[in-house]
Amino acid sequence: MPLKVLLLTHRIPYPLQDGGAIVTNFMISGFLQHGVQLSLLSLNTSKHFVDINTLPKQYQALHYFETVYIDNKITPIGAFSNYLGAESYHTSRFKSAILNEKLKLVLQENNFDIVILDNIFLQDTIATIRQYSKAKMACRIHNIEHLIWEKLAHNTKNWIKKKYLVEQAQRLKEIELKTLQQVDVLLLLNENEGVSLQAMGVETAQYLMPFGIDSAENNSAIQWSANTCFHLASMNWLPNVEALDWFLQKIFPKVLQKKPNYILHIGGKYLPNAYIKWQDKNIIVHQSVENGQWFMQVHGVCIVPLLSGAGIRVKVLEAMSLGVPVISTSLGASGLQVQHGVDILLANTPHEFADALLTNEMLLQKIGQQAKQTVLQHYNKTKIIQEATLFLSKFTNA
């Protein structure tokens, strides 16, 4: 009998233009390829609305698939009203009575082995799952969410904004830790977050299920571009905005002092118009990136100047799998099985980052080549999904 899984997501994981969608799609496509009977119930949000008629064919292979529309836009009035209450604005925007009603029906009509919450934002569904199903429950950990907002608050200078972020981080922390102790197992992207959660008192069982790369999809050679780097990220995530601003203001000027012909390419979904003002002979802004893999292959070094955030950087692994050299802060590479100077360069200050970009090109290419081998060894999609399916089968029968 195939493993019967119901996956609940707070957004449709398509198109594959940001890390969250890519990680969720990795699980969907992997489970389908390995014979799991997979059902998907998803919110279709105003912020990430998807016309379901545009979804790829793999969605037709789902045992069950349904979506529920919800308006989850962030508004000043909504944020202020929430601040006067006690809930987290991050989670309250995903509450849906219609979703819970759909969930009730699908649980009554199916005998699932396990229900997977694709992060904590659908914590409002836990009571419904427990009431109408005997299935085990898992939560996929993309990030330790409250830590992101704590770090953003710490790095914010505006005292009004800082006060608001501190308050929201605390509310989110309370909900997050409570939610993670209500499920049966946590599906981790990296070991570091498992250690952190245990230190916070979360005693729920853990299983390491990192993001994996299909090596067959990334077997083309890079077209090396000298004196060139790129930043490719979804820019509706505040840590990415913070990272790029830091690079533009503190790091890139140091690089240009020594190499005036150096070029930075900026690309990604939801790129604010404010970045267009930076465009000149050294900075090229790509307002639309149709093919992320091609973008990474032709624009030199991948930079990941993250100062806050958590989880695992999908773009880092994607770049490494292509043989593209990566320069990152330690935080940006947190949880990855990498070694500074071997398959990645780590830099945590503007001076270190600029020096890393000015590294001998032969060394950078060698690091890129070793990075590709690291991904093949530790982040093989087929192996990760096979082992996860076996674990979940045993876990649900225990």
Q: What does the model show?
A:
The model has no long low-confidence stretch (mean pLDDT 92). This protein has 398 residues and is of the alpha/beta class. The two termini are 16 Å apart. Helix 11 crosses helix 13. A 7-stranded parallel beta sheet has the order 3-2-1-4-5-6-7, sandwiched between helices. The protein has a 6-stranded parallel beta sheet with strand order 10-9-8-11-12-13, sandwiched between helices. The protein has 2 domains: 4-212 and 381-397, Rossmann fold (3-Layer(aba) Sandwich); 216-378, Rossmann fold, CATH 3.40.50. The protein has 14 helices and 13 strands.
SSE order: EHEEHHHEHEHHEHEEHEEHEHEEHHH
- Which structural class best describes the helix and strand composition? alpha/beta
By DSSP (H or I, 4+ residues per run), the number of helices equals 14
**Radius of gyration over alpha carbons?**
21 Å
- Note the gap between the termini: 16 Å
Fraction in helix: 40-55%
Biggest sheet descriptor: 7 strands, parallel
CATH class of the largest domain: Alpha Beta
CATH homology superfamily name of the largest domain: Glycogen Phosphorylase B
| Tally of distinct domains | 2
Number of strands: 13
Second rung of CATH, namely the architecture of the largest domain: 3-Layer(aba) Sandwich
Find the CATH topology of the largest domain: Rossmann fold
The coarse overall form would be globular
* Sheet with the most strands: spatial strand order: 3-2-1-4-5-6-7
Beta fraction of the residues? Answer: 15-25%
Give unreliable regions as ranges. none
Q: What's the mean pLDDT score? A: 92
